[in-house]
Design brief:
Distance between the termini: 40 Å
Shape: globular
Number of helices: 7
Low-confidence stretches: none
CATH architecture of the largest domain: 2-Layer Sandwich
Oligomer: single chain
Radius of gyration: 17 Å
Helix content: 25-40%
Order of helices and strands: HEEHEEEHEEEEEEHEHEHEEH
Number of strands: 15
Strand content: 25-35%
Mean pLDDT: 93
């Protein structure tokens, strides 16, 4: 289903307001968070659940027929509500990306919300409440930071450029990652969504992820592409479109970068 710019702008406005409400609420509660472990290896706080409910409730006021995929479902599962009455839109929600940071009172956490149509992200919002940075994008338009247009950087792989690399890379790729990190400055802020937002804004030349989930990358993907960058898997294949009805907790290996460095980074990852 083709969505016109008026509808996309309406979706963006709802996503941005929902992200700000949830993010600001999380920031106010950061001193009193309760921490638990889900699925044996993931940290979660009560605010993840509270913020996700806040976001879903806000979205449903304007778009009651749209589908929802959220990180925090019952018993460690994904929250999933199928679209109805002919809607093609799925909202993809990470209420607190960087939960480990948040739980340890590290301010590098974000709210990430995307709207997807036809299996592709068409609207993206990444909001960092501690710094009041709101990255927004509509497919076919310009990515923005606090309403001002942004673009990816034009830097190559140099000793002055910055790349974000996620955690937990498989052993058979560690030598490749070391070769890459010898060429650039390494950064990890503990939030995949924030890494992607910084690529879109030109602060990082690339974000490299090994175990990203859809809610980590959907908003960032449309941000980067509308800022002039490129998002693929490690082999250079497109991530999107994906089949939303069967989507759950799949891992994605992504290269999200400016177009100048994308091929070189992909080549460095080849075994």
């Amino acid at each position: 289903m083709q969505l016109n710019k008026i509808k996309l702008t309406q979706v963006l406005n709802v996503a941005l307001e929902a992200a700000k409400i949830a993010g600001d609420r999380a920031l106010l509660a950061i001193e009193t968070v309760d921490i638990s472990i889900k699925n044996g290896n993931e940290m979660v706080t009560q605010m993840d659940l509270i913020c996700q409910k806040s976001i879903v409730d806000y979205i449903k006021k304007s778009f009651p027929n749209d589908g929802i995929i959220g990180e925090e479902g019952d018993n460690g599962n994904t929250l999933k509500q199928n679209p109805k009455n002919g809607s093609d839109i799925w909202w993809v929600i990470d209420p607190i990306d960087g939960t480990n940071n948040y739980a340890h009172k590290i301010m590098d956490f974000t709210v990430s919300i995307a709207a997807m149509s036809g299996g592709e992200p068409v609207v993206g919002v990444i909001y960092a409440p501690a710094t009041n940075l709101a990255f927004t994008a509509i497919k076919g338009d310009r990515a923005r930071l606090n309403s001002k247009p942004i673009t990816v950087s034009n830097e190559g792989l140099t000793k002055f450029s910055h790349i974000a690399v996620g955690s937990h890379f498989p052993k058979d790729y560690q030598a490749n990652i070391i070769k890459l990190l010898e060429k650039v400055k390494f950064r990890n802020f503990g939030s995949t969504a924030l890494h992607l937002a910084y690529v879109a804004g030109g602060s990082l030349i690339c974000s490299l992820s090994n175990q990203a989930k859809l809610w980590d990358i959907a908003a960032g993907a449309v941000l980067i592409e509308t800022a002039g960058g490129k998002v693929t898997d490690w082999q250079g294949n497109p991530i999107f479109p994906i089949e939303m009805a069967s989507c759950n907790k799949e891992n994605y290996r992504i290269i999200a970068s400016n177009k100048i460095t994308h091929s070189e980074i992909r080549n460095l990852l080849r075994k």
